Amino acid sequence: MASISSLGIGSGLDLNGLLDQLKEAEEQKLVPILERQETQQTKISAYGQLKSALSQFQTAADALNDSTLYESLSTNVGGSAITAAADAEAQPGSYNVTVDTLATRGTLASEGVAAADEGITAADQKLTLNFADGSTQEIDIASGSTLEGIRDTINATEDAGVNATIINDGTNFRLALSSSETGADASIADFSFDGAAPFTSDTANTLQSGTDSALTVNGIDITSSTNQVEGAIQGVTLNLQEEGDSTVSVEQDTRAVREAVTNFVEAYNGLKDKIGDLTSFNFETGEAGELLGDGTVRTVESRLRDVLGGAVEGELSILSDIGISHKYDSGLGYSKLEVDQDKLDDAIANNQGALATFFAGDSDEAGMAGQINTAVEQLLGSNGRVEGAISGAENLNKSLVEQYTRMEQSIEQTMSRYRSQFGQLDGMIAQMNQTSSYLTQQFDALDAQLGRG
Question: Which InterPro entries does this chain map to (predicted)?
Answer without folding.
Answer: Flagellin_hook_IN_motif, FliD, FliD_C, FliD_N
